[in-house]
Structure formats: C-alpha cells, structure tokens
Amino acid sequence: MTAVSARELTSQLPKHHLSDELLMDYASGALDEAASLFVSSHLTLCPHCRARQAELEALGGVLLEDLEPVSMAEGAFDALMTRLELPEAANDADAALLASKTVAGKILPSPLRRYFGCDLQDISWQKKGGGVSVAPVPGIGDGSHAFMLKVEAGRAVPQHTHTGNEYVMVLQGAFADASGTFARGDVELADGDVDHQPIAAAGEDCVCLAVTDAPLKFTGSSGWLLNMFVKM
Length: 232
Ligand SMILES: [Zn+2]
Known about the structure:
By secondary structure, the chain is α+β, with helices and mostly antiparallel strands. It is built from 9 helices and 11 strands.
C-alpha cells in the first residue's frame, strides 16, 4: 500500500460519497438519529452530494405529481417540506472549510458540533489501546450507535469484518485500506462482505465519525476493539 500523507489530502473535495439510497432515506425521514447525523454531516462537507440530493428531490417531486391527488392532513405538507430541507449547515461557508480548515478554525461539521457542544480539540477521548481512542456522540437516541474514532498517525486498526452496516467518514487526517484512500469528507460503507484493515496515514491522527447498527466482528486474534464497541 502506498504511504499517503494526510496533509496532501486535506484540501481535496470528497471522492467517496453517500449512496442514492441513503440520500433518499434521509430526505424521506426514514433514517434513525445517528444515520441522519452522518448524512447531514457529509452534506455539510460535500457539494457533490448536496447537488445529487437536490436532483433526487426534484425527481421525487415529479413522481408525486403523477400520483392521484389525495387529501392530506392539515400541516402534513409543511411537515414534509421541513423534512426535505437541507441541514442549516449545508452552505458554502462550511464547504470552504475543506479548502482551508485552519482559517475557519472548525473541524467538526456543524451538525456534529451541535451534539458535542464544542469542536474537535475539546472532545474527551477514551483511550482503547493500540493508538485508538473513541468518543461516543452524546445525546443520540435509540437505534444506530454514533461515535468518534481516532487512530494515531501511521497506526493500523485490527483486521475486522462487520455483522451489520458501518459508515465511516473522515474528518481529519486520512486512512487507507484495500478499497482505497479516504480523506476529509470521504465516506466508506462497510458491511458483512468487507474484511478490512484500515491504516491511518502518516503526519496527522486520523479522526472519523462512525455509525454502526451492529457490533464489529474480529477476524484476527485481538478482541479488544470488539469489546469496546459492545460495552459502549
Ligand atoms: Zn459526497
């Protein structure tokens, strides 16, 4: 695997995006709180997915027009439109963070910052050994788990596969695995078919937002990370 400097990757726009299925589930309000936070955080950082979501919503509007009109409960239309709105944070100011995160001084996307009540540097981490730390996102309701994952520059996460879905988005630094290199804003979806060993790029600790709907299952000898997820 080629060594990639995190610094080289910081100023690029995301290359690994959300699926149409996930964008549509988000627009229709079908996602639970942790998954919604994940999508809104990515939209904050990704002009490509914001444009794609607008296309999908326009398509959804055309499909609705083709249906026979039915009477709606009072307020239902407003409720639908509220759900379809992009997050308040999805604006050019946040996209500009990609180009120069230090000028704007913010690393966490604003939807995520609202949960923590602070930016990255003030998060309290729980050290898990092996260069890995975690911080659960506070205030997330029932359903999927959302947490921050920090891997020291140049360190590897033990080989593992997944019993459910795991979404990971890089917020600082970068990591690489068999499927490619992931830098700020990039999304990786791992499911039961993926058996991977992510390695953090040199130069800067890799910090990710992770959302899982089931514990990870370790294929190697070390079970420490599995225990960490189960107990969280
Ligand atoms: Zn995207």
